[in-house]
Protein: Transcriptional regulator SbtR-like C-terminal domain-containing protein
Organism: Streptomyces brasiliensis
Amino acid sequence: MRAAGTRLLTRAQAEGMARTDIDGTDLFALARSLAWLSDQPSLAPRADHLFDVVVSAIVTSAGSRDVERAP
């Protein structure tokens, strides 16, 4: 999962869709933090907001129009 995420991040960075000051380790840490947050019942009402915050920490403004949330 980490290697695949790193490849996707590298490709997004090359296309100007993701920040270039993060790497696969950072991406994996952010994904783990989202997983941890999903296990916190007190944060459930803020899950969508927190997801958006994490995505905005990765995706550049050029790429934000291409980000779609899964239903």
In short: The chain is about 60% helix and 0% strand. The radius of gyration is 13 Å.
